[in-house]
Design goal:
Blueprint (H helix, E strand, L loop, with lengths): L1 E8 L5 H12 L6 E12 L7 E10 L3 H8 L4 E3 L18 E3 L3 H12 L5 E3 L5 H14 L31 H11 L16 H17 L3 E3 L2 E9 L2 E9 L2 E6 L3 E3 L6 H9 L4 E3 L2 E10 H9 L16 E3 L5 E8 L3 E4 L9 E4 L8 E10 L11 H16 L6 E5 H5 L18 E3 L8 H17 L9 E6 L6 E3 L14 E3 L10 H16 L1
Parallel strand pairs: 5-6, 5-11, 6-7, 11-23, 19-20
Antiparallel strand pairs: 1-3, 1-4, 2-3, 8-9, 9-10, 12-22, 13-18, 13-21, 14-15, 15-18, 16-17, 19-21
Helix pairs in contact: 3-6, 3-12, 5-12
Length: 529
């Protein structure tokens, strides 16, 4: 296989054009090409009058590929090998491994262990996707929160009800395994080559369900509405997991527990802390969701090309350093999406962003976040960051008017420190309801001042970002885990007990669907080798 990098493609390209370009770059006849596929495709919108794609192509020839590369004499052209994930050499396990959590980390740990014949037992305190959708819809309609089946908890983890963004900063080749498995189980094939791939929450529900069925078909088990409430050890080694299921406790003998608990499993983190599992405070970020009209963001990003079907709704990513030394940035940007109620505890309000595959809602939103550090938490207790989150979420509940309505403020009013009395062009998409309230009522001063400075600065890079009719909806507190469970760098086991593998975003070792999934794969590999 030959890879050709940095190929320009107009927005209306087709397979014939791609083949012609590949032949031209290689200086060969089109007849010598058996197949051309996209390896990567990104949008180049630096010039608004010339928006196009930049692509990397994988080319398969019916002539000697090494000679073709040599004759082409181009730095953009090289030989490449198709990616193939290979299971590590597998040792015999005395007991079935237990995985706590069925988000991306737990799911892919389970998939690898199942593929290896280890028959994993997966414990998830939330519900399966079908039941979870009903619970969330009921919460939005009635305000009755199910604290174990919601935006945070259930099959697929918090990522199930998100944009399903799969772009990642990790360079680990296992990321390709993750993308391939998503496609194998029903995700759109374009996630394999788009530089900023996303599945959409509507597709994710079915993809995750298919992966679960595959794990079960391979000999694994997935238990919903089940919670790991403790564990047993002997001579500092894991011997069992203690599970509560259907109101009864049971003990599962095991030598290995993967803790893929997600960033909001506060009760489980408390249990682990009280069991003397060593953990530490970790920086994270807080703020609010910011919403603009999708069409306006599209025009700003793509100019006259806005609305082109191949471009879709426009994303953005912004970050600045503020005068007080904090970082402020946009996160989890959902083009054509909505702001959703992401509470997992009673009488607390926190938000998240979600969009479907088509990304065609009226608004686009992202989290506008400011970094906070352990120095802000007010205590040296490892769980102090959780209490910091809770204080904000409880206050947001109060200033939202109760009943899980969210506090909302126009950007024009936020920048001038006024209470909002009427909306403009942007109508909040938060379906549980909202009340006008100042962000300063429930967010710390150093956060809101950083947000104000950031909005003005970010507008220089994304015209219209500070539009007075844009809307803030608070609070966003679950950007990442406020805790890191310490683990051995080589074995990935907890430094406290052998056979326990803190894993993924909840343990402080990932930051998104793909990186969490990759960490799950790595932990599974450690158990198998």
């Amino acid at each position: 296989m030959i890879r050709i990098n940095n190929i320009r493609l107009e927005l209306d390209y087709n397979d014939t054009i791609i083949k012609k370009k590949a032949a031209k770059e290689l200086r060969i006849s089109e007849k010598a090409i058996e197949k051309v596929t996209l390896f990567r495709r990104s949008i180049d919108a630096r010039k608004k009058n010339d928006v196009h794609f930049l692509a990397a192509l994988d080319v398969y020839l019916n002539i000697n590929e090494k000679n073709a590369v040599s004759k082409a004499k181009s730095k953009r052209i090289s030989l490449a090998e198709p990616y193939e994930y290979k299971l590590p050499s597998i040792k015999k396990l005395n007991n079935r491994p237990v995985i706590v959590g069925f988000g991306p980390a737990g799911m892919f740990a389970g998939l690898i262990l199942a593929e290896a014949g280890a028959n994993p037992i997966i414990i998830e305190q939330g519900a399966d996707c079908g039941k979870r959708v009903k619970d969330i819809d009921n919460f939005i309609l009635t305000g009755k929160l199910n604290t174990t089946s919601n935006i945070q908890f259930g099959e697929g983890g918090a990522g199930t009800f998100s944009d399903g963004k799969l772009n990642t900063g990790t360079k680990d080749p296992r990321a390709r395994k993750v993308l391939n498995e998503f496609v194998n189980h029903g995700a759109p094939e374009e996630i394999l080559y788009n530089a900023k791939p996303h599945i959409g929450t509507d597709n994710l529900r079915y993809v995750i369900k298919n992966i679960r069925k595959h794990i079960i078909n391979l000999g694994g088990e997935v238990h919903f509405n089940s919670k790991c409430i403790s564990y047993k050890q002997k001579n500092n080694k894991i011997t069992a997991a203690v599970i509560k299921e259907n109101g009864s406790e049971k003990i599962i003998e095991t030598d290995n527990i993967i803790l893929a608990i997600g960033h909001s499993s506060r009760d489980t983190l408390k249990m682990l802390y009280e069991s003397d599992i060593i953990m530490e405070q970790k920086p994270f970020s807080v703020g609010a969701r910011i919403e603009h009209l999708r069409e306006e963001i599209d025009k700003t990003q793509y100019g006259a090309f806005a609305g082109n079907e191949r471009l879709g709704s426009a994303p953005y990513k912004l970050n600045v350093h503020t005068k007080n030394g904090r970082g402020a940035y946009t996160f989890c940007m959902c083009p054509g999406g909505e702001v959703v109620p992401a509470a997992s505890e009673n009488e607390m309000v926190c938000t998240n962003g979600m969009s479907r595959f088509d990304r065609d809602n009226t608004n686009s939103n992202s989290a506008l976040l400011v970094s906070v550090t352990p120095e802000d938490f007010g205590s040296e207790n490892p769980l102090a960051g959780i209490e910091y989150q809770r204080r904000i979420e409880k206050s947001a509940y109060k200033y939202g008017g109760g009943d899980y309505k969210a506090p909302v403020q126009r950007i024009g009013d936020f920048l001038t420190k006024r209470n909002t009395t009427a909306l403009g062009d942007v109508i909040p998409s938060y379906k549980r309801g909202y009340e006008f309230s100042e962000m300063d009522n429930f967010l710390p001063d150093y956060v809101t001042e950083s947000m104000r400075e950031a909005i003005i600065t970010m507008n220089k890079y994304l015209n219209g970002f500070s539009h007075p009719d844009a809307v803030l909806t608070g609070a966003e507190t679950r950007s990442s885990s406020p805790v890191r469970i310490l683990r051995n760098k080589d074995t990935l086991e907890s430094v406290s007990v052998e056979g326990m593998y803190p894993c993924g975003e909840g343990a402080g070792y990932a930051g998104g669907i793909v990186s969490a999934a990759v960490d799950g794969i790595k932990c599974a590999e450690k158990i198998l080798t």
